[in-house]
Specification:
BioF2-like_GNAT_dom, BioF2-like acetyltransferase domain-containing protein, 39% helix, Aminopeptidase, 305 residues, five-stranded mixed β-sheet, Acyl_CoA_acyltransferase, 15 strands
């Protein structure tokens, strides 16, 4: 294992990530680079695991004091993990656990999916490590058709969604270009006071850089619900390997009576089904509307020592 600066790992990171069995946008180099540029404002160190000088894994983590932590910012980090070549996860976790125990380091790894290699691998090798249930990230498994989707909802939720969509008959959802990111910020600020406070300069810089980078990779799902010539709602999402990740959204409160947020997401779920996606991932937050749209509970975990 060796410590390197994030920027020096770009090519190796891309190669590992592209060959990974279960990569997610949140572990891409582009994600951490945008995070470093806008929130960390540095070129942070990461942990690199090698076999005969060939990089087999990278853990986006740093040592702060006597604790090893994952790179991230709780304002924007919904999921985190290491990246690794398939078949090398046990080797990496074993080396990492040995490093932690030899140096008597504390651990703070968050937010992780419960079935990831870090959770099972480290908890089996470091007895003092605790696995804490953390944030709810509701997940919707998509059926093969809109009809099947509606049938999967409970009667009240199905009726309400149909009623809301019928009320805005003629509204269409369409892809918009990265240049419309400013419009998304405006709608986020208008629709929610907390989001207005959330949109600090570093947050908007992170979003803008991420939108451009993910657009180049073909993962961006920046979409607007349009009624006539007026945008009533927008979502910032990512689409990758049959999964849509809903990252943020905003709507025009002038159309609040039309439930523009639910309408925008409902239309996008319909689009995702038509695109043969398997999952619609609502990410962090246990807002009631996610469950009314059919999502089920899923929790991330935090590893602490």
């Amino acid at each position: 294992m060796r410590i390197e600066q994030l920027s020096s790992t770009k090519d190796a990171w891309a190669e590992l990530w592209n060959k990974a069995l279960t990569p997610i946008p949140f572990t891409s180099f582009e994600w951490y680079d945008a995070l470093a540029q806008n929130f960390l404002k540095s070129d942070p160190h990461v942990m690199v695991f090698c076999e005969n000088d060939t990089i087999r894994g990278i853990l986006p983590a740093f040592i702060s004091g006597e604790t090893i932590r994952l790179l991230g910012d709780e304002r924007v980090t919904d999921l985190n993990d290491m990246i690794y070549a398939s078949g090398y996860e046990e080797m990496i976790v074993e080396h990492l656990a040995g490093y932690i125990t030899r140096n008597n380091l504390g651990v703070d790894f968050y937010p992780l999916e419960i079935d990831g290699p870090l959770v099972s691998g480290l908890s089996n090798r470091i007895p003092e490590l605790t696995v804490q249930k953390k944030d709810c990230c509701p997940l919707l498994r998509l059926p093969g058709s809109w009809k099947e989707y509606l049938a999967s909802l409970d009667a009240k939720s199905r009726h309400e969604l149909r009623r809301k969509l019928k009320k805005v008959n003629g509204v269409v959802i369409e892809d918009v270009q990265p240049t419309e990111t400013k419009r998304l910020f405006d709608l986020m600020a208008l629709s929610d006071r907390n989001k207005r406070e959330f949109l600090e300069p570093e947050t908007m810089g992170f979003f803008t850089e991420l939108v451009d980078a993910f657009h180049k990779r073909g993962w961006l799902r920046l979409r607007a619900a349009v009624m006539g010539n007026r945008i009533i709602g927008m979502i910032l999402a990512f689409k990758f390997r049959g999964r849509v990740y809903l990252f943020n959204m905003g709507f025009d409160p002038a159309f609040r009576s039309l439930s523009p947020g639910i309408v925008t997401i409902g239309l996008d779920i319909n689009s995702a089904i038509e695109e043969d996606c398997q999952y619609y991932d609502f990410l962090r937050g246990d807002e009631d509307y996610k469950y009314r749209l059919g999502a089920k509970e899923r929790y991330t975990v935090r590893l602490k020592r």
